[in-house]
Amino acid sequence: MRTDTTRTTGATRRAGRFRLLTAGAAAAVLGASALAMAPAGAETSQWTRIQPPAGIRPLATLNAVAAASGTRAWAVGQEYAGDYTSQIPGVPLVLRLDGTAWTRTALRGVTWKGSLTSVAASSPTDAWAAGLDTASGMRLLHFDGTSWQPADTPVTGPVASLRVVASPGHQPWLIVTPTGGSPVVLERAGGAWQSVELPPAPFTAATVHVAVDGTVWLAGYRLTQTPPFPISVPTLVVQRWTGTGWATLPDGPQTWPHEVLAATDGTLWVAGTVPRTGPGGPIGAPPPSALVHWDGTTWTSASLPALTFGLPSLAGDDAGRPEWASGTGVLAGSEPVGGYLKYTGGTWTRVPGAPVVAPEVDRVSIAGLAHLPGTASTLAVGQAPYPFEEQHVPRIEREDAP
After folding, report:
1. pLDDT value of residue 331
2. What pTM value is reported for the model?
3. Edge-to-edge, what's the strand order for the sheet holding 184-189?
4. Which of 36, 129, 284, 333 would you label with 244, given CA atoms 20 to 30 Å apart?
């Protein structure tokens, strides 16, 4: 084994090795992002890097983005947060798009430490952001058209995961999984969060989606054992909210669901991962990605580029038809190589992300996508790390193809 000659050199190299090791593991555990970069010699990207606004403190990242109109969107995350340790807990961060300019939004009255992990917009004057504090407690913020303010949370105690969703013109929904408990789904009605009864076990809810026409979809799974493998695998189960209960679609393929995109014609896509029932894939790589389609009659699994892994996020057009998926990667040798998946002519094809800008390194993480209503544009957010240091800066990309 080679011995480094100085403490500085050794620490630097260890940091570099650690980032390479944890990149795939982070995508597998967190699921919110995966490596997205354009390899050397790749085709020109359709995506453009947007300069983050001034005034953001170091060690910042963006976790989610939502658009209320063609000129108004919000991105949320945290700033001054440690990368691989909890020594620096971070503080919530909200960015706002007005027209074509992004600005950092003041969060007066928000004193807790932690991160915002999801955001949803019902209109340019009504938006919600959800996250976790350093004690894993649920936190909600509400934008009333003037400012962001702390809001009461409908779930108390430690939370393992949560997501707030909405679409323009329609009220938001929440899905919250308490630590060690079962998921809870709530809708915003009458100025309060109302609990919605879920389908009975063995169904387990995983994610909820408010379509552009206001239809609400719930994706989850039912665990079964498939001989000869001694482990349980998930059967995809998708439900549609009728206003009084859930209407169940026929069972889907074996999929861990992460995100749903529904079109106005009743067709939909579910993004997630394929369960591993045995050895397969490089050591340390997350499970393979899954993009599953319901055409109104049957389920089909999309054919994706080889070794595509990670949990994709989805963005569609004004009718909810798919256009982009992100949060995926491939392995070229031992190095992760990523980008976006573009849906054209019934096929998902890989498109590189925007080029990095020095001193960023080419392991950009894209965590979320959002279509700008009434336009042909899509937003993407995440983070871009710096070389050999535990530093990272927000990443904003935009695609404006007709």
Report:
1. 60
2. 0.87
3. 159-167, 170-178, 184-189, 192-196
4. 129
